[in-house]
Structure formats: C-alpha cells, structure tokens
Amino acid sequence: MLRPHERLEGLIDAPFKMSPTMPATENRAQVHCSCGAVALTLRGAPIVSLVCYCDTCQEGSRRIEALPNAPPVRELDGGTAYVSYRKDRVTYAKGRELLEEIALDEHSKTKRVIASCCNSALLMRFDDARHWLSLYRARFEPNPPAIEMRICTGFLPNNVALPNDVPSYRDYPGALVVKLLRSRLAMLFHFG
Questions:
Q1: How far is residue 50's CA from residue 31's CA, in Å, rounded to a whole number?
Q2: Per-residue pLDDT at 24
Q3: Which of 2, 22, 26, 47 is placed for a possible disulfide with 84 were both Cys, Cβ 3.0 to 4.6 Å?
Q4: Is residue 121 part of a domain?
Q5: What pLDDT was estimated at residue 142?
Q6: Overall average pLDDT of the 103-132 stretch
Q7: Is residue 18, in this structure, part of any structural domain at all?
Q8: Residues near 34 by beta carbon (within 8 Å), at least 6 away in sequence
Q9: Rounded to an integer, what distance in angstroms lies between the CA atom of residue 178 and that of residue 54?
Q10: Is residue 19 assigned to a domain?
Q11: Where are the alpha helices (DSSP H) in 101-154?
Q12: Is 174 helix (H, G, I), strand (E, B) or coil?
C-alpha cells in the first residue's frame, strides 16, 4: 500500500562546491519531469548507468506507474534503469517544492522521489550513508547514457530473456562495487 506522500526536506540541501581539480567548464546536464515543472542539474560524469531487476525496484516502479497519469518507469523486460550520480553533483534547478517521496514500507531506508505535478519518477535516494542518488534513466531524454550493466537478474522469472548487449549479473557485481568505491574516494578527497 502506498504511504501518503511526504514533502521532502533536505534531500539535496547544500549547493555543490567546485572541486579544486575540476575545471569550471565541466559537463553539466539537466533532467526534467515529464511536464517540465521540476528540473535537476547534474555535473560531471555519472558513476554508472544500469538496469536493476531486484524485487524492490520492480515493486517501486509498479507503484509509481500506478499513479494517475504517471509516465512509464520500467523497461520492456521489467527492469528499472538508473543513472547514478554522487550526491554532491546533483542540485535543484526548479520545482523542489513539487518533490514527493514514496517508501515501500514505513521501515524502508530507500525512497523513490517523484514530481507531484505529473507523477514522473525522478530519483531514488537512501536514508543511510550511501553517497549516491540513482536517477531514473527515462528522465535523460532524448539521449540517455548507455546502459553499462544489468544487475540482480536472479529476481527475474526463468522465461525472461535479456539482451546480450551488456554484462548481466545475478546480484551486485564487483564491477559495480568498484565504481561506487572509486566515486566515494573521489568525493572524500575532492577529485574527479
């Protein structure tokens, strides 16, 4: 059952600080909700672009898609595609007051954030020490980053055939853990 939406407080409070090694002209991108009332600014390259098939991502995406007029979240094969960024590289451009979060249950440390204006899924955040946000890849229109891997495929029914375009892993692969650790170190030591 979907909990009542709560207004977000402190999701991405502080403006980012330029790293001393980061040029002022570094890559920037914006992602928007489907109606354009909410926008987030992203700087630098993402940590990873992937599709997750775990049971909680599937359930979270189903719940978001069940909201009135919500645009699709899941891929055709049932997975949820994300592009992950360090928290210090994501800021609000507009519409922060329109953000609402959805938790699968009252004890969940994972929150899915939607734009209440059009029920677009924007990102997934965590109420713990994780240093990244996973933005829904569907918001990166018209040119989303290429998918690098498929994870948690062990949750899929046996009759689902996945494409062989990128590596697929039954759980959380070492390659993902290494990417996340590298990004955490870069964040801690203010480089990259």
A1: 17
A2: 41
A3: 47
A4: yes
A5: 86
A6: 94
A7: no
A8: 71, 115, 118, 120
A9: 20
A10: no
A11: none
A12: helix
Q: What is the DSSP string of 69-97?
A: TPPP-B-TTS-EEEEEEEGGGEEEEE-GG
Asked whether residue 1 is assigned to any structural domain, the reply reads no
Of 45, 46, 130, the closest CA to residue 81 belongs to 46
Per the CB < 8 A criterion, the answer to whether 98 and 116 are in contact is yes
Q: What is the pLDDT of residue 26?
A: 65
Six token digits for residue 58 = 């599937």
Which of 83, 75, 63, 89 is closest to 162 using CA atoms?
Answer: 75
Which residue in 15, 109, 124, 120 sits closest to 64, CA to CA? 120
Per mean pLDDT, which range of 7-16, 94-103, 118-127, 140-149 is the poorest?
Answer: 7-16
CATH value at residue 48: 3.90.1590.10
Q: How far apart are alpha carbons 32 and 94 in whole angstroms?
A: 9
First to last CA, the chain: 41
Structural domain span for residue 40:
6-10+24-188
- At 145-177, the pLDDT tens digits run 999 999 999 999 888 889 999 999 999 999 999
Total domains, the chain: 1
Cβ-count burial of 146 within 10 angstroms (0-12 exposed, 13-18 middle, 19+ buried)? exposed
Distance, in Å, from the CA atom of 26 to the CA atom of 5, rounded to the nearest integer, reads 35
